[in-house]
Amino acid sequence: MQLVRFIAGAVFLTAGLLACIVGVIGVFKFRYAANRMHAAAINDTLGISLCMIGLAILAPDIASALKMLLVVVFFWISAPVASHLLCRLEIETNEERDRYMELHVIEGTEAAGDPLQETEAEGPENADGTELPKDAGETAEDNVRTETVGSEKGERI
Amino acid sequence: MMAGAYQVLSVGAMGILAVLMVVCLIRCAIGPRISDRIMAVNMISTLTIIMVAVMTVTLKEGYLADVALVYAILSFLAVIVLCKVYTGIYRERRHVEAEQMAEQREAGPVPDMSIENAAEPKDQDAAHREEEGTSCS
User: Can you give the residue range of the structural domain that contains A104?
Assistant: First the structure.
């Protein structure tokens, strides 16, 4: 029984560490900050979840095992919020973002006085050929969908 | 025999985590943008939480799980505060630059550069384009 428990915990912990390694390698592989954020999210979700499940199996008592699972639940809640804030910071402060991504305002979020409006008015039209809404709003910044387009080869930003 | 296996597993896991933390620190040092640095700090704190949990199992001390939980909360708070602070610094800098631009252009005709419009970051770029004579309207 002890051996089965150890093997199960060791397998989960090793899988979590492999996920962490993949995330850290991905942070060095991608060229743009938003892509790197995607690689870092592997670390925050899959890596810590598998590690904590494995360590909860190996834990000395039931209370500390439950606390480790509580850490996983907390990360499920907090990691998307942190990623959202980081992506807003990146989009807002990057003055050359048009080279790396296209911003699309999601329909139904129009208002007035948006900092992204110039980008939308000047950029290419939507995929279906419709005009982007000119009067996109302050709240539309929360609802932009980012797509990275091919940047210059071999350039690291 | 079982204790030796636990020892090998925990030492190996902590060695791997230490190497990954150093690599994340390199990313934090060379990261060209501020969001890269904040992201690297977030990854380092995630790996630290895993390390504390490994120590919980290794030392058989239950209270270290509490430490991991509190560390998770603190790292989340750090990311939020850093993002808010740097967004605020950027907006303030753009605001000051826009005010200086408006003061410089007071002599010539100012088409649409009131202070409220100049406060927005993209209107600054619009001011640049208007100066170069490639107005987009």
Answer: 97-148
Is any Cβ of chain A less than 8 angstroms from the Cβ of B35? yes
- Mark whether A89 and A102 lie in a shared domain: no
The ipTM value here is 0.70
Same domain, A15 and A84: yes
User: What span, in angstroms and rounded, lies between the C-alpha atoms of A148 and A34?
Assistant: 8
- Is the pTM for the entire model greater than 0.95? no
Nearest CA in chain A to B90: A93
Q: Give domain status of residue A47, yes or no.
A: yes
Cα–Cα distances in angstroms (integers) from residue B123 to residues A65, A126, B99, B137, in the given order? 53, 23, 12, 13
How many interchain CB pairs under 8 A, A with B? 167
A71 at B interface, C-beta within 8 A: yes
- Mind listing the pLDDT tens digit for each residue in B87-136? 899 889 989 999 999 988 886 655 555 555 555 555 555 555 555 544 44
